[in-house]
Amino acid sequence: MGLQVGFNLWIEREGQVVLSLWRVRLLQAVERTGSISAAAEEMDVPYRRAWERLRESEERLGLKLVEGQVGGTGGGGAVLTKVGREYVARFERFSEGLEALVEERFEAAFGDLN
User: Fold this and answer.
1) Which terminus in the chain has less CB density within 10 A, N or C?
2) Which residues are CB-contacts of 27 (< 8 A; sequence separation ≥ 6)?
């Protein structure tokens, strides 16, 4: 098996992660599924980890990304706040094309070794 490149991207505040590719995927899953629990299941992570990462991001940013909904016939749920959707959109714009660029640069630098 040849060399492969790994790529991760995150944004920090005071040395602590506030948004990352993984956290944005989690937020997108919350929006898509309507709950943190379903989003965690979709991403194959424990609910507690998903919940903790969302809370960390909110505390570090000083704003609410996810709004819980209580009750109803199907129980509670969660949706992204307006600002949560805006942060997801901005991160998507920021990260668009970076993975392809990293792969291209990797191929240029290491392609002859594979």
Assistant:
1) N
2) 54, 65, 66, 80, 84, 87, 88
pLDDT at 75: 63
Q: What is the largest CA-CA distance in the chain?
A: 59
Domain CATH for 44: 1.10.10.10
- The reply to whether 2 falls in a domain is no
Question: Which domain covers residue 24, as residue numbers?
Answer: 10-109
pTM value > 0.70: yes
Query: Residue 1: what pLDDT?
Result: 64
pLDDT in tens, 60-106: 999 999 998 776 556 678 999 999 999 999 999 999 999 999 999 99
Q: What would the DSSP string read from start to end of 26-38? A: HHHHHHHHSSHHH
Q: List all residues 6 or more positions away from 46 whose beta carbon is below 8 Å from its beta carbon.
A: 40
Nearest CA to 11 among 83, 81, 88?
88
